[in-house]
Amino acid sequence: MNETILLQCGELMRRGSSSFHKAFDGLPSPRREAVHVIYAFCRIIDDSVDEPENSPYTIHELRSMFLKLEEAEGHFIWPALRWLFSSFPQLSQEPFLLQMEGQLTDLTFTHYETMEQLESYCYLVAGTVGEMLLPVLRDDDNEEARSAGISLGMGMQLVNIIRDVGEDLRRGRRYLPLEVLQRNGYSEQELAQGEVNERFIAVLQELKTEALAYFRRGLDNVRTYPPQSGMAVELAAAFYAAILDAVAAQDYNVFHKRAYVSDEAKVLMFRRTAARYPLVH
């Protein structure tokens, strides 16, 4: 395997999400490189829908080439994926196909009515990532761990939705379910105008409660992972949960500001988490 190809995946992850890169950087090889490949492919899938002008492929081209993976050429992701599936034979292609199916819905289904619809979407675009990572992060096929991995991914997607309300509206999408808006007395007109008031804050807090519940379920069995993997999962969850605090710190103005977690805060979270994993270092 050409090491440069794996380094390119790692660089794509570092540029795309410094939080994820830092969280998984302590994994031993080849688990670390496998996470880089999974992230890189998911990033390319995401960009094919959200930023098609910057993507090497359309979502349809990606799916077609993935289905003929042994023949796919023209980008470093294809040999990287071949390496991934050959190094981790227990890894299924199914969650990757579901991930693409979820991203395809963004092209046609842009306004959500119910939490049930939103949760189905969160599973497809993010719960599946938990399923992809599971065979890479641990060596056994554990149904409880699979369920936890799905929950963690779905919680992270809810955080993304909270953080990116304004950005998504500018793309013509409303992930905040209409039933949640109505339950909290916040109108679609107010949303379109970017009004931050107590009713909007109540909408975000309802989704925040859901996200944190997914995180709790996602971390239920983290101690059954190999120590380096468990620490990586805890770090990823901590970094993402901290985005919710950053949203609150900027008074829930997610229309014009992108909430982010400072490097200093990440260092503190890293130290706190590492203290629970003394054998990792």
UniProtKB/TrEMBL annotation:
Signal peptide segment: none
Pathway it works in: Carotenoid biosynthesis
EC number(s) given by UniProt: 2.5.1.96
Pfam families registered for this protein in UniProt: SQS_PSY
Keywords: Carotenoid biosynthesis, Transferase
GO molecular function: transferase activity
CDD domains xrefs: Trans_IPPS_HH
Enzyme class, first EC level, given as a word: transferase
PANTHER family assigned to the protein according to its UniProt record, in alphabetical order: BIFUNCTIONAL LYCOPENE CYCLASE/PHYTOENE SYNTHASE
Name the UniProt record assigns to this protein: 4,4'-diapophytoene synthase
